[in-house]
């Protein structure tokens, strides 16, 4: 199914003022594809995720599943939606009920969602789900504390798969895992997507992981998308100054490459989402800022096919990269 | 070897748990020279923090050093009493702890907290104040006089981390141990902190021990690396060589499992399989053998020692029975 998000907004009222957590986000994810969402802490990734599965009610905007707007769905429609779109959370420790065995956790979802008929069917399906995520049936009898982090995350994935969703929203699914087990979970997610034709929204602050799994990538900053495009162009030849800074800031595990890198260091910090800067959201930290950036908000412009950038000056700043991008995709 | 400012030999530390002593640091040795950055890398629970706290002589109640020596600027730390040891912390060695929120006092303004550290070492009054402001400025905090009057919760994560560094370096230590100082920070702030550390190292000859689980951070900051696994150093060596030709299958597995940063190909990620062992139920033989693709029979019974690779350790040191040229791919 195609997931289309249009001008999605979430504002939180707090004592200090209105937090513009998500402030006009739009993207499209085609069936069977993965959209990566990256950005620094607080840029609105999780809030976007929670709205997609309707754990948070949007302030405004549209969420279209195959054309049907579910942003404000209630009752039976909302319940049906939960069968089509599921979320996997960052923290496999906190997202499982410690008092239930793995089999009970999965069985409960199957029963509540009426996915099975009777105990025998339920047991069979639990075993199938465990097998799908690379675990044996014996795990069904174990409690979360008897599992490793990677195993717990597999259970989290199995629980999402239990309702046979079409879309999975994965919010930092490997960030809490040991480095040596991340690859395993990434491979599992890729395999499930390809075998089951699942559509993913993959959220991470780790550009490397996002680059690895995504078809398209959106870079968020202060509740907005500053750049969106194909995975390769976006991670290797970005056209927005922020995406470039973000990429340069990530240290790569290769001392020889590190020694050669010419990194433009990004100063300052992300401004407060209650008082976002006027003009370009990034202007307070941008190495290329000019007067116009302080007053005029750049809109997302399609500078190469299916590659949109919200910067006034990308053409002038990165002419060679842009020429290449237009050629490659054109 | 003698130019090392910090020399750790055969460090052993145990943690008391369930009526048993669990070996959490096992035979760890390393040197750090002035102006050098050494990374201590390993997954959660591999013993990085307890190695650092053993060196500092600041172990929690449940833990106890049971063997080994720590030499700091010519002193055998084990032979000193607690008062003498305390005098070394600050001017000789300092540490940035893993969680900045727990190590800054939330009820106290940050300036006085830096001053307090100086006063404990006899720098007092106006001089302590001036030195504190100077230290806050040196770590790149804007308007340090004003910032000194802030409470920790009024600062951003990056600013708190800089305050922590300022506190640690205010007494101009020769060695700074930084325990995951950037893990909780955004990458752009991490980059600022890494550059700051590098600058201090170059300009003042500060020796750095940088603890992390991020191999990218290792590649950026460190000239030498120690890889820990289940309380052991399983490989150590010069960063470039270690990343190019890892000598231990665990290091090779970790490096191989990271997505590529360049190129049009995105092959399935090579994965290690399994998970790090529980320290209370360590496998026999080599602690990595249940997960190791290079395992031979001997690995299941004999625990390999850290041994030099190449001529005289030209390719670093590794604790593995199977040398790299005999690995199956
Ligand atoms: N329930 C809430 N009430 C008020 N503000 C909120 C709430 N939830 C989120 N926010 C704020 O909204 C902004 C976006 O938060 P969000 O959790 O979506 O960020 P994120 O990109 O997922 O960050 P991280 O990488 O740290 O997970 C932040 O400024 C956050 O403080
Ligand atoms: N105060 C304590 N009491 C009991 N066990 C402890 C204590 N501190 C650490 N341990 C145990 O000692 C082992 C090593 O812990 P250590 O904190 O040194 O790991 P680490 O490598 O720093 O991990 P992390 O990356 O999670 O910080 C772990 O198995 C841990 O559970
Ligand atoms: S619009 Fe201006 S401030 Fe914003 S990214 Fe482009 S150059 Fe920088
Ligand atoms: Mg989040
Ligand atoms: Mg630690």
What do these coordinates show?
Chain A has 330 residues and is α/β, with parallel strands linked by helices. Chain A has two domains: 3-214, Rossmann fold (3-Layer(aba) Sandwich); 236-325, no CATH class. Chain A has 13 helices and twelve strands. Chain A has an eight-stranded mixed sheet with strand order 6-7-8-3-9-10-12-11, with helices on both faces. Chain A has a four-stranded antiparallel sheet with strand order 2-1-4-5, with helices on one face. In chain A, strand 9 (216-221) and strand 10 (224-230) form a beta hairpin. In chain A, helix 3 crosses helix 4. Chain A is globular, with a radius of gyration of 21 Å. In chain B, a hairpin with a 2-residue loop joins strand 9 (224-229) and strand 10. Helix content of chain B is 30%, strand content 23%. The mean pLDDT of chain B is 91. In chain B, 50% of the residues are buried. In chain B, helix 4 crosses helix 5 and helix 5 packs across helix 7 (157-169). Chains A and B meet through helix 5, helix 6, helix 7, helix 9 and helix 10 of A and helix 8, helix 9, helix 10 and helix 11 of B. The complex binds adenosine-5'-triphosphate (2 copies), iron/sulfur cluster and magnesium ion (2 copies). Residues 12, 14, 19, 21, 39, 41-47, 205, 273 of chain A line the site of one adenosine-5'-triphosphate.
């Amino acid at each position: 199914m195609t997931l289309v998000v249009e001008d999605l907004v979430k504002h939180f009222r707090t004592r200090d003022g209105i937090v513009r957590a998500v402030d006009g986000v739009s993207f499209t994810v085609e069936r069977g594809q993965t959209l990566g969402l990256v950005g620094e802490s607080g840029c609105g990734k999780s809030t976007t995720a929670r709205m997609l599965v309707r754990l948070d009610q949007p302030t405004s905007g549209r969420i279209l599943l195959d054309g049907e707007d579910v942003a404000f769905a209630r009752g039976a429609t909302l319940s049906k939606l939960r069968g089509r779109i599921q979320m996997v959370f960052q923290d496999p420790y906190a997202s499982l009920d410690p008092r239930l065995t793995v089999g009970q956790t999965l069985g409960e979802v199957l029963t509540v969602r009426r996915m099975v008929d009777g105990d025998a069917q339920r047991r069979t399906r639990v075993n199938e789900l465990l097998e799908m995520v690379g675990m044996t049936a014996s795990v069904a009898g174990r409690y979360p504390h008897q599992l490793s982090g990677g195993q717990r995350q597999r259970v989290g994935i199995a629980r999402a798969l239990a309702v046979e969703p079409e879309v999975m929203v994965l919010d930092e699914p490997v960030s809490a895992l040991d480095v040596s087990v991340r690859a395993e979970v990434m491979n599992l997610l890729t395999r499930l997507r390809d075998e089951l034709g699942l559509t993913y929204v993959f959220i991470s602050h780790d550009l490397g992981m996002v680059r690895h799994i995504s078809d398209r990538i959106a870079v968020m900053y202060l509740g907005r998308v500053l750049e969106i495009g194909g995975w390769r162009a976006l991670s290797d030849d970005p056209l927005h100054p922020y995406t470039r800074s973000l990429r340069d800031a990530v240290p790569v595990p290769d001392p020889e490459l590190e020694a050669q890198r010419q990194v433009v260091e990004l100063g300052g910090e992300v401004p407060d989402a209650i008082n976002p800067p006027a003009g370009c959201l990034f202007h307070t930290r941008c190495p290329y800022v000019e007067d116009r950036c302080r007053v005029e908000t750049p809109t997302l412009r399609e500078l190469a096919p299916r590659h949109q950038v919200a910067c006034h000056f990308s053409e002038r700043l990165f002419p060679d990269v842009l020429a290449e991008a237009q050629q490659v995709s054109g | 070897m003698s130019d090392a400012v910090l020399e750790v030999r055969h460090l052993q530390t145990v943690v008391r748990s369930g009526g048993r002593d669990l070996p959490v640091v096992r035979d760890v040795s390393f040197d750090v020279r002035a102006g050098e950055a050494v990374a201590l890398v390993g997954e959660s629970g591999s013993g990085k923090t307890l190695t650092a706290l053993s060196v500092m002589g600041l172990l929690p109640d449940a833990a106890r050093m049971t063997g080994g020596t720590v030499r700091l600027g010519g002193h055998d730390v084990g032979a000193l009493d607690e008062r003498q040891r305390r005098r070394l912390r600050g001017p000789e060695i300092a540490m940035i702890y893993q969680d900045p929120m727990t190590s800054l006092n939330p009820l106290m303004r940050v300036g006085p907290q830096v001053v307090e550290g100086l006063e404990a070492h006899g720098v007092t009054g106006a001089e302590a104040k001036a030195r504190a402001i100077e230290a806050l400025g040196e770590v790149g905090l804007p308007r340090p006089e004003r910032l000194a009057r802030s409470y920790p919760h009024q600062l951003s994560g990056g600013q708190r981390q800089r305050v922590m560094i300022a506190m640690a370096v205010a007494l101009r230590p020769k060695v700074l141990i930084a325990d995951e100082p950037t893990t909780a920070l955004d990458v752009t702030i991490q980059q600022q902190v890494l550059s700051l550390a590098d600058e201090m190292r170059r300009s003042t000859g500060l020796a750095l021990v940088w603890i992390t689980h991020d191999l990218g951070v290792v590649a950026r900051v460190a000239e030498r690396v120690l890889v820990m696994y289940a309380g052991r150093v399983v490989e150590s060596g010069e960063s470039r060589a270690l990343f190019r030709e890892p000598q231990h299958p665990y290091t090779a597995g970790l490096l191989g499992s990271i997505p590529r940063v360049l190129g049009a190909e995105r092959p399935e990620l090579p994965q290690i399989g399994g998970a790090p062992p529980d320290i209370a139920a360590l496998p026999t033989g080599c602690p990595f053998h249940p997960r190791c693709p290079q395992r031979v029979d001997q690995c299941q019974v004999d625990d390999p020692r850290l041994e030099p690779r190449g001529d005289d350790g030209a390719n670093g040191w590794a604790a593995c029975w199977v040398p790299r040229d005999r690995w199956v791919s």
